[in-house]
Amino acid sequence: MAKEVTVEEKLRALYDLQLIDSRIDKIRNVRGELPLEVEDLEDEIAGLETRISRFNDEIAELDAEIKGKKNTIKEAQEKVKKYESQQKNVRNNREFDALSKEIEYQQLEMELAEKRIKEFKAKIESKKEVISASQAKLDERKSHLEFKKSELDNILKETQKEEDELIKKSDEYSKMVEERLITAYKRIRGGAKNGLAVVPIERGASGGSFFTIPPQRQLEIASRKKIITDEHSGRILVDPELAREEEEKMQKLFTSLSK
Questions:
Q1: Measuring CA to CA, which of 101, 120, 220, 246 is 20 to 30 A from 164?
Q2: 198-202 and 205-206 strand pairing
Q3: Is residue 22's pLDDT more than 90?
Q4: Which helix (H) or strand (E) holds 201?
């Protein structure tokens, strides 16, 4: 016949489970926002690279426009030269005036093309400035990403083994208590910001609470004869002596796992 687990043994197992799960929380908190920071930096870098690429494409288009306008100027110069040559051989003023208008039109075309070239060059310079600033920012973000990735990798190397072992221990201690209590433990823990479902009495109140527990209730908790919860937070309560003993025991476990 299997040995019946006493209430005290259940309380000890529950508090040990809480200490293990809190240790896992602490390890994960050390990693903290690092994975998200790495992801955000990667997204920002991708955005900057896309922006630089787009501006380079726009500069290439403007260079093509400049080239086109230079061809327009060259063609207009050739036409002016041709029309001026033809003016020398005109038969009347009407032909001379017609050629003069063509020359004037080509000169206007050249002026307009020169104006557009200046505008395109100004746009190119402006875009190059943006590219330069974006490139500087990109280089800085890449360097920052490299640092953050290295930091995250180091933390993972240092803590992953311990976390994996603690998860195994958490499963192990969960099996020491009936499912009903584990379900309640997980529910309370899930609803608490700090993840605490089992807490000791501290200065006459539930750990982390300002609500005083009556002396008679404290004696009941210290007797370890039944599972008692805090009426305000719903947390399972243990007496300070039990908590101290289990904390010492768990600290030895944590020290051995972190080596």
A1: 246
A2: antiparallel
A3: yes
A4: strand 198-202
Dump pLDDT digits (tens) for 93-117.
Answer: 999 999 999 999 999 999 999 999 9
Query: How does pLDDT run across 64-84, given as a tens digit for each residue?
Result: 999 999 999 999 999 999 999
The Cα–Cα gap between 205 and 213 comes to: 5
Fold classified for 34-158: Helix Hairpins (1.10.287)
Judged against a pLDDT cut of 90, whether residue 257 lies above it is answered with: no
The DSSP secondary-structure symbol of 212 reads B
**What Cα–Cα distance (Å) separates residue 202 from each residue in 140, 206, 208, 240, 252?**
49, 6, 8, 7, 23
**Structural Rg of the chain based on CA atoms:** 40
Range(s) for CATH 1.10.287.1490 in the chain? 34-158
Using CA atoms, how far residue 147 sits from 13, 37, 57, in Å, is 41, 11, 31
Amino acid at 147: F
Q: What is the mean pLDDT of residues 15-26?
A: 94
Say if pTM beats, i.e. exceeds, 0.70. Answer: no
Quote the pLDDT of residue 2.
Answer: 47
Produce one character per residue of 200-214: b if its CB has 16 or more CB atoms within 10 Å, e if not: bbeeebbbebeeebe
Helices (DSSP H) in the chain: which residue ranges?
7-31, 34-87, 93-174, 179-191, 215-223, 240-257
Which residue, 183, 178, 211, 210, is CA-closest to 197? 183
Task: Please state, in angstroms and rounded to a whole number, the distance separating the CA atoms of residues 72 and 237.
Answer: 89
Structure tokens at 204: 């006459």
